[in-house]
Amino acid sequence: MSAFRALPSVDRVLASAAGRDLVQAHGRSAVTAALRQRLARMREAIAGGADAGALVAGLADQLAIDLADAAQTGPRPVLNLTGVVLHTNLGRALLAEPALAAATTAMAQAVALEMDLDSGGRGERDDHLRELICQLTGAEDATVVNNNAAAVLLALNTFGQGREAIVSRGELIEIGGAFRMPDIMARAGTRLVEVGTTNRSHEHDYRQALSPDTGLILKVHTSNYRIEGFTAQVPASVLAGIAAEAGVPLLNDLGSGSLVDLSALGLRREPTVAQAVAEGAGLVTFSGDKLLGGPQAGFIVGRRELIAAINRNPLKRALRLDKIRIAALAATLQLYRDPDTLAGHLPTLRHLSRSRDDIAAQAERLLAPVQALLGDGVRVQACECASQVGSGALPVDTLASAGLRLVAVDDAGGGAPERLAARLRALPVPVLGRIHEGTLILDLRCLDRDDDLLEALAAL
C-alpha cells in the first residue's frame, strides 16, 4: 500500500507549476480528465511491480505528452518518400504557392463569392472559374463540383435518370475505395447497358444498343489500369458521331485529366481535356486534384446547353465547392496560362519532371547525415528506384528515381524493415517510405528540401 501512497492527488498536481502551465495550455477540464486516466494507469503499473517513484517523477512529462496527443486532431503533415507522387492516402496534389495564398485570403476575409460587384446583384460561384477553364480547354461552358466521382454522378443523373447509359464492358472501372462505375450509375438512377467484351468493343456494338430509352453514351478513360494484347475500343470521336446521330450526349470521363501534354515531361502521352472536347464529346469530366495539380474538385466541361441542364439539377447545390477551393482552383488555373513556366510553379509537375540525376545528387548529399542520425543499427545506402505517378494516372508507367535504402545491420529474427518503417511513422513528422525486397526505401522524388528529412529524423 505504501507504494500507492506515493501517487499525488489530482488537486496537488493541478496546483503545481507544471499543472498550472498545462491548465493554461489545454484547459482545466481536459487536464483533469487526462490526469485521472494517467493516475489510473500508474496504479495498474505499480500493482504489476513498477517503481512508483520513477512513475511519479515522470508524471508531468507524461501528462504533457498525453494532452498533446489528445489535442492533435486532423490530418498530420508527413514526408512523402513513398515514390508515389499523387498518393491518394496522402492527399494527392500539393498546391502551388499562389493557390495557398488565394485559399488563405478566402479563409480570412469576406469574398464576393456569389455577388456581381458591377450590378450589386447575385452572381454565380462558377463564374470565378468558367472563363479560365473554357480558355484552357476550348469548351463552350464549364461547371465544377467537389470531385470527379460527383461530376460523373451529376452528369449521369441529369441525362440518364430513368433512362439507359451505354458503356463498353472494358470501361466499367473500379476506382479507389471499391467505388465502381456500375454502382455510381445505379445511384444516378441510370440503367446500365453494357456493350462489347472486356477486351474488345466495336462501333456496331454501340449502334445496336441504341433505343428510345437511351439517355447518353458513356466513355470512361481506363486511367488506373491497362488492357493490352488483342484489344479494340471505339475512339471518342466516333462515339461522338454516334451520339449526335441518336440525339444524346457523349459523356467522356477522363478521370485524372490533364490540361497539358505530359509527353513534354517525358511521360506517356495522355489525352488532354482540350483533345477530348475537340473530338466532339458533349461533356468531359476530370479531376482537379490529380494531374491538374489543384485542390480536390471535379470539372464538367462541354456544350453550353448541356452544362446549363446540369446546373439546373438540384444535386448541383449539394455537390458544389466552397469559397476556399474555388479560390485555390482559380489561382492554379491561372498558372496554366503560361505553360513555359508551369513545371516551375506547380508542385505536381515539378515532382513528376525531376530528373533521376538531380534526385541521385540529393541522395548522395543526404547519405552521411542520415546515416549519422539513424546510428550503427541501420546501414544507409544510396540507390536507384522507380517512382509512380499515382491516383490511377499512368498506372503502368514508372519514373526513374533515386533514394536511400535502409538496411538493418542485425535482422536475425526478420521483420526489421517493418519495425524501422513503424519507427519512422511514429516520428512527430512521420517519414513514409516503402518496403521493397526486404529493405526500406526512401524515394526522394518528392523531397523539396534536404533539411525537411534531416529535421524529421533528428527526433529519433
Write a brief caption for the model.
The protein is an alpha/beta fold and 460 residues long. Helices cover 43% and strands 16% of the residues.
Report on the architecture of this protein:
With 460 residues, this protein is of the alpha/beta class. It folds into three domains: 2-71, no CATH class; 79-88 and 351-457, Aspartate Aminotransferase, domain 1 (Alpha-Beta Complex), CATH 3.90.1150; 97-341, Type I PLP-dependent aspartate aminotransferase-like (Major domain) (Aspartate Aminotransferase, domain 2, 3-Layer(aba) Sandwich), CATH 3.40.640.10. The chain contains 21 helices and 15 strands. It has helices at residues 2-5, 10-15, 17-26, 28-47, 52-57, 59-71, 97-108, 127-137, 148-160, 181-187, 203-209, 236-246, 273-278, 304-312, 315-318, 323-335, 342-345, 347-353, 356-374, 416-425, 450-457, and strands at residues 79-80, 141-145, 164-168, 174-175, 179-180, 191-195, 214-220, 250-253, 283-287, 298-302, 378-387, 399-408, 431-432, 434-436, 439-443. The protein has a seven-stranded mixed β-sheet, with helices on both faces. Strand 4 and strand 5 (179-180) form a beta hairpin. Helix 4 crosses helix 6, helix 8 packs parallel to helix 16 (323-335) and helix 19 packs parallel to helix 21 (450-457). The radius of gyration is 28 Å and the shape is globular. The model has no long low-confidence stretch (mean pLDDT 90).
